[in-house]
Design a protein that fits this description.
Layout: H1 9-53, H2 58-76, E1 80-88, E2 101-111, E3 122-132
Antiparallel strand pairs: 1-2, 2-3
Helix pairs in contact: 1-2
Length: 139
């Protein structure tokens, strides 16, 4: 048997729960975007370190790092508000037979203003990669 004082209860419940579901969906979308951007920044750092490790000198290595990071993030579709690249490519100048490592650090400020529920500001994701240089290769 239905009671008459229950009318509209479903409408009230829906009106209360829909905003909660929208906020959960927006939070999940923001979290996914940051996770995905972090993976792409890591891949860009690894590719740049790999490319720098086979360069002929430190100047060429520095140039290739910037080029590879920019191209990799652009190809992946990561829209960074600010990209910062730090590199240590001095080991490329070591003589053959001497071990060394190239290190690349990339940070990207990922904006959140274009999500389903626009959020102010941005969150910076950072990643670094090390790559051993070929001690037997020609430099």
């Amino acid at each position: 048997m239905k009671r008459r004082d229950q009318r509209g209860a479903v409408s009230v419940e829906v009106a209360l729960l829909v905003p909660v579901f929208v906020l959960v969906a927006a939070g999940a979308t923001a979290g996914w975007r940051l996770w995905w951007a972090g993976g792409q920044v890591q891949a860009a750092a690894e590719a740049a370190a790999r490319a720098a490790s086979v360069a002929s000198n430190s100047q060429a290595a520095s140039q290739v790092v910037a080029t590879v990071v920019t191209a990799d993030l652009e190809t992946a579709g990561v829209h960074c508000q600010d990209v910062s690249i730090s590199q240590d490519v001095a080991a490329v100048n070591l003589p053959p037979g001497v071990p060394g490592t190239v290190r690349v650090q990339v940070s990207c400020a990922v904006g959140l203003s274009d999500l389903l529920l626009p959020m102010p500001g941005s969150i910076t994701v950072r990643s670094s990669a090390d790559e051993a240089i070929d001690i037997y290769g020609r430099r």
